[in-house]
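User: Good morning. I'm curious how zinc ion would be positioned relative to this chain. Could you predict the structure with it bound?
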Amino acid sequence: MLLYHHSDFALHNTQSHPESVARITNVNQMLADSGWVERCTLPTWNPASHVQCQRNHSRTYLKELEDWCQNDAGRVEVDTVVSKGSWTAATLAAGAVCDAIERVVAAEDNTAFCAIRPPGHHALPESAMGFCLLNNIAIGALHARSLGLNRVLIIDWDVHHGNGTQATFWEDPSVGFVSIHRSPFYPGTGSADETGSGKGLGTKVNIPVAASIAPDEFLKRLFESTEKIANQMKPELILLSAGFDAHRNDPVGGLTLESEHYLQAGNWIAALARQHCSGKLVSILEGGYHLKHMPECVDAHLQGIASERV
Ligand SMILES: [Zn+2]
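Assistant: Good morning! Here's the predicted structure, ligand included:
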């Protein structure tokens, strides 16, 4: 497995915000303590270029974001904070996803995990939103398209709907999207009747679930709906918005899941990738705000992926 982790993700200084520096510090500590740093390949990579970012975001927004960072702007949107180091962290995050995709597509390895922040799946082409500055997974999927891939499947199991990712690919049949998320909940989108439009109609799948859903039922709905669209579109690459804020103790999200369910889900998604695209899977950290349980969930997720491979 390729592992992307970097101390510079701490440069995005959000102070007392729940999407804190401590999240990534604790994940990095877990990756070292649990032996992932030793076991995985650790590529070096470049920050996402303007060309890569502009595939998903307008020049106007990118300039605005760069200016916010230079000015240490603080709160730029109701939920989102920017500091001087945020541009470095955000472009390094999107760059990690692009690099991971290039290497997985080139078969250097089948699987990659990007331990990055800030998260990305709420970021829209023209604006920051919900703790997100650049939409890392959307930039990644568009990078995969530029490498010649024609069918990419994005799965999003963060507890929040991946509205930014869905917006980018709404009319695009080459990028499938499945999101399971708590409803009603932030950001308010992701009802079951949102299935894409134009040529993209039927390639977007939304699974809104109640906060009280039993973990087995959550996994059953995720697995069944995803397998159906995977059979339909036959992806050449699977990308995962791996949020861990559906953990029962998460202070921002919260559903009923425990870390063992992320082991099960990791195992399943690696098997799905093996079935459809020679195991090609790039997993990308999104939300997850419990400083102890989130790293435990990441560990379980990686164990699930790794154990499928043996
Ligand atoms: Zn979330």
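The longest strand covers residues 175-182. The chain has ten helices and nine strands.
Let me know if you'd like a different ligand tried.
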